[in-house]
Design goal:
16 helices; 453 residues; alpha/beta; Aldehyde Dehydrogenase, Chain A, domain 1; seven-stranded mixed beta sheet; five-stranded parallel beta sheet; single chain; Aldehyde Dehydrogenase, Chain A, domain 2
């Protein structure tokens, strides 16, 4: 491993000082090898009211800044992220276990949303509406909402923050960010980039415009239940959303919830199997199956099922699994041992249901201390209870179908609806699928994973 940068160098290159990453009570470990890489200071719960108050004071000032001028701050933030892309990407790899290309790709998503939001800062249009009263006209005008709390998960430690923050800032709204306690370092590095952008922007950026809260569930609770925060954007499990949503609604706040997905691909008899195999592997094993849009269910026509499964087993056998810092690695570790244990428990349940498991064991030759696994393909006789659950790991359940009606019914018969896709060369099948998929994202001849912004 001598050719790989040590954690201390990666932290320094990302602009994190020794003082900021040592001496705290929250130990940060790298999923690469389980080693402690930092000890950061948690935000005292007693400071939460003051943090929320500062955000509201910032709101009073920031909402009066013209939207195109607010967009200028986001443009500067994008510039800072561009300059720090390599170091931030490597920090994502170190802290979240993503392979190098995924770490860099996540930083690029931050840059892209900044570019997008800058354009929107000059497009905050309203409407002029005809009135039934003589001599009157009605006008629709969008006003800033107020401070937004952004709660993010470990698997996309920085991109989700940027999606929310870039848009909130151009709309005139401050942001309080609570990252996962598993990934505070990338959050600290992003906030340092924001501070540099704000310094360049000048005094129009008020104190408290973007704040960071490091901590656990109690810190999130303080944000979710505060009447002084009109919007909560939370990313995490469906279970988390079922808790957050009602609490925000109970105080008549607004919530944006990005939760789990039990994403399926339908492979029709006419599908281009070469194209399908590439899409399946990318979307099922990327980020070690820890994306909300990871492919988890494969619904294959009986006429091509055996041939496709055989090709997938061969493809999985050749996957480079190991240290995500190495350019040749395609599958890095799960975030922790608990995730690996949950994966094994799901595979045991699948076997008990009559499933045939290919792979899924602990990966050999990977770094010690990390939760490395071989991605699993599980041939299932039916869509059982374990298949209908979301296991945040690289498990791909394979089921057969005879008619398109049956395939679409299988796809829709899960509690989680996020992303879906079909592989077919039949235009009628594609259109039927697009009309009847109950997911927010429906794709044709491309997998369920991947972001446009």
């Amino acid at each position: 491993m001598s050719d790989l940068l040590p954690a201390s160098v990666i932290l320094a290159q990302a602009g994190l000082s020794v003082e900021a990453t040592t001496g705290g009570t929250l130990t940060v470990t790298s999923p690469i090898d389980g080693a402690a890489i930092a000890a950061v200071t948690e935000t005292p719960l007693s400071e939460m009211p003051a943090i929320i108050h500062r955000a509201n004071e910032a709101f009073a000032a920031w909402r009066t800044v013209p939207a195109p001028r607010r967009g200028e701050l986001v443009r500067l933030l994008g510039e800072e992220l561009r300059a720090a892309k390599e170091s931030l990407g490597m920090l994502v790899t170190l802290e979240a276990g993503k392979i190098v290309s995924e770490g860099l790709g996540e930083v690029q998503e931050m840059i892209d949303i900044c570019d997008f939001a800058v354009g929107l800062s000059r497009q905050l249009y309203g409407l002029t509406i005809a009135s039934e009263r003589p001599g009157h006209v009605m006008r629709e005008t969008w006003h800033p909402l107020g401070p937004a709390a952004v709660i993010t998960a470990f698997n996309f430690p920085v991109a989700v923050w940027s999606w929310n923050t870039a848009l909130a800032l151009v709309c005139g709204d401050p942001v309080i960010w609570k990252p996962s306690e598993k990934s505070p370092l990338t959050a600290m590095a992003c906030m340092a980039a924001f501070a540099r952008a704000a310094d360049r922007f000048g005094p129009d950026a008020p104190e408290g415009l973007a704040q960071l809260v490091i901590g656990g569930a109690a810190h999130g609770e303080a944000l979710v239940t505060s009447r002084a925060i009109p919007l909560v954007s939370a990313t995490g499990s469906t279970r988390m959303g079922a808790i957050v949503g009602p609490k925000v609604a109970a105080r008549f706040g607004r919530s944006i919830l990005e939760l789990g997905g039990n994403n399926a691909m339908i492979v029709a008899p006419t599908a281009d199997l070469d194209m399908a195999v590439r899409a399946i592997v990318f979307s099922a094993v990327g980020t070690a199956g820890q994306r909300c849009t990871s492919l988890r269910r494969l619904i294959v026509h009986h006429s091509v099922r055996d041939a496709l499964v055989e090709r997938l087993i061969r493809a999985y056998a050749s996957l480079p699994i190991g240290d995500p810092r190495r350019a040749t690695t395609l599958v890095g570790p799960l975030i922790d041992d608990a995730s690996r244990a949950r994966m094994q428990a799901s595979l045991d349940r699948a076997r008990a249901d009559g499933g045939i498991v290919h792979g899924g064991q602990v990966a050999s030759g990977a770094p010690q201390g990390g939760a490395y696994v071989e991605p699993a393909i599980v041939e299932m006789p039916a869509q059982t209870a374990v298949v209908r659950e979301e296991t945040f790991a690289p498990i791909l359940y394979v089921m057969g179908y005879e008619t398109l009606d049956e395939a679409i019914a299988l796809q829709n018969d899960v509690p989680q609806g996020l992303s879906s896709c079909i592989f077919t060369l039949n235009l009628r099948e594609a259109e039927e699928f697009l009309q009847r998929s109950d997911c927010g994202i429906a794709n044709v001849n491309i997998g369920p994973s991947g972001a446009e912004i």
